[in-house]
Write a structure and sequence with these properties.
It is a single chain. With 112 residues, the protein is α+β, with helices and mostly antiparallel strands. It has a single domain, classed as Probable tRNA pseudouridine synthase domain (Thrombin, subunit H, Beta Barrel). It is built from one helix and six strands, in the order αββββββ. A hairpin with a 6-residue loop joins strand 4 and strand 5.
Length: 112
């Protein structure tokens, strides 16, 4: 319970400072915890929030670590594969990763 409160405080801190480190009009979303590194050197995460393929992934310090490569598994509890852009992705096992997504998102179609 205490660990959960500490992680929430860190997330709140990251959200407060996100505009300083992230691009303008972007939002930080928690993806999930890194479970392991696959044979193809991708980081496998248990998804809490499902990101879009190609979105940028950061760690708790808002340092870019990779991009979303794939979303797979059952729809009730999906997994996310992240292609790392760092030298040692093994050091991020058991760490929480976040995705930086655009505030605008997709444009909605207007009804006629």
């Amino acid at each position: 319970m205490q660990s959960e409160k500490n992680s929430q405080k860190r997330l709140n801190k990251a959200v407060r400072v996100k505009h300083r480190f992230c691009e303008e009009n972007s939002i930080l979303h928690r993806i999930g915890q890194v479970l392991h590194i696959s044979i193809t050197k991708n980081m496998i995460l248990k998804a809490e929030n499902i990101p879009r393929i190609g979105e940028k992934v950061t760690d708790k310090n808002l340092k870019p670590v990779g991009t979303v490569f794939d979303v797979f598994g059952p729809t009730s509890s999906p997994y996310v594969a992240v292609k790392p852009h760092i030298q040692n992705p093994e050091q991020l096992v058991k760490h929480i990763l976040y995705v930086v997504s655009s505030e605008n998102g997709r444009k909605k179609r207007k009804k006629r």
